[in-house]
Amino acid sequence: MGRGDHLATFEQLVLLALLSLEEDVAYGMNIRHALRDHARREASVPTVYSALDRLESKGFVSSHLGQATPERGGRAKKLFRVEPAGVRALQEARETLEAMWHVGGLVGGRSDG
Amino acid sequence: MGDSPSQRCLRPPRVAETTLLLLLPKLDRGPILGDLAEEFTRRALADGGKVARSWHWRQFVRAIVPAARRRLPRGATGRDGGILNVTKMGFPWLDVKIGLRMLVKHPGLSLVAVFALAVGIPVGVAPTRFVNAHEAPPPVDESDRIQVLRSIDLVNSVVRPGSLYDFILWRETLTSFESLGASMDAVYNVISEDGRAAPIEGAEVTASMFDILRVAPLRGRTLIAADEVVGAPPVVVVGHDVWQSRLGSDLDGLLARRGSEPQADDSPLSSRSRAHPCADRSRRGARRSGDR
Lengths: 113, 292
Description:
The complex is a heterodimer. Chain A is built from 4 helices and 2 strands; from the N terminus they run H-H-H-E-E-H. Chain A has a single domain (3-103), classed as Orthogonal Bundle (Arc Repressor Mutant, subunit A). In chain A, helix 1 crosses helix 2 (28-39). Chain A is an alpha+beta fold. Chain B is of the alpha/beta class. The chains are: A alpha+beta, B alpha/beta. Chain A binds chain B through residues 4, 27-29, 32, 44-47, 49-50, 53-54, 57, 65, 68-69, 71-73, 75-78, and chain B through 24, 28-39, 41-42, 59, 62-63, 66-67, 69-70, 74, 79-80.
């Protein structure tokens, strides 16, 4: 994984939120709800889309326009899907974190003092 | 046909939507505004229009900076490179973002900061204004037309004594002032005819000083350009006070000596005994003067 392809914490959360959603409802507002409900992260809609932009430029997600609905003021949804590279990046990030937790001795009952 | 009140209630605040529309890049407008409108509608149906509006305005405030940043080129705002790239565009977006965040999270603290600035700046400036207001202006007509030029040694933070070179250079190059004069304070030993000898304060000045000060002689003349020529006979302008106290108000046959050399005296008298460096800027804005 290149230096620019690492996943920031917020990007990991967005990817995980995206994975938790069905493909036909995986768009900005629902991702935001998932972040709020499961990660207790309040992010503005543009912030979520900024993260999705970065993930898309890294090839971790792809997007396409969905249907427009009246409650959206006739505007189309932008639906996202996690690509295999995104899943791999998530797994690598998790393995890296777990390895560091082991190295730090914080896994397995180490206590301060 | 107009919208019914219930339909209007289900619309997001138009000002907020329009502002975001202008801030967001074209490709983002549909998805982002659509998401906000959809959530607004859901909340309006569930909790009422007032709650939905309040929510939308909060979202709007939180979205301003991210929306504006999305309009900038990638990498210009730290979207790729992190915090160090924030100032690449020369505008402190991070400061704006943190400022807005603090305003939302800690409105009381923001209020204190604003209050401190609103009060602190005037309080800090007040002493200077007070001194300026009470500083005695030069005793000449329209004294605000007169400015003093000083040469300052920036390394040692001291006023550097002016030089003739400075004066000539300024006189030839400065265009902001109508006229430039120079003076050098000095103390002269004056021996009057009754034999009294006592020092008096005076000054060696350029001829232009009298024009700048707008001081007219009561008798005789003041200095003229010809007096500045090398080799021209020195001219003494005696002030009114000195004329009365030291010369017995006598003009006829007055002879001044500089050392052992007799000086011509055109008996000029002015109502002021000292010349000050000053300049008239009434004709061309600022005018200049110089210290020697």
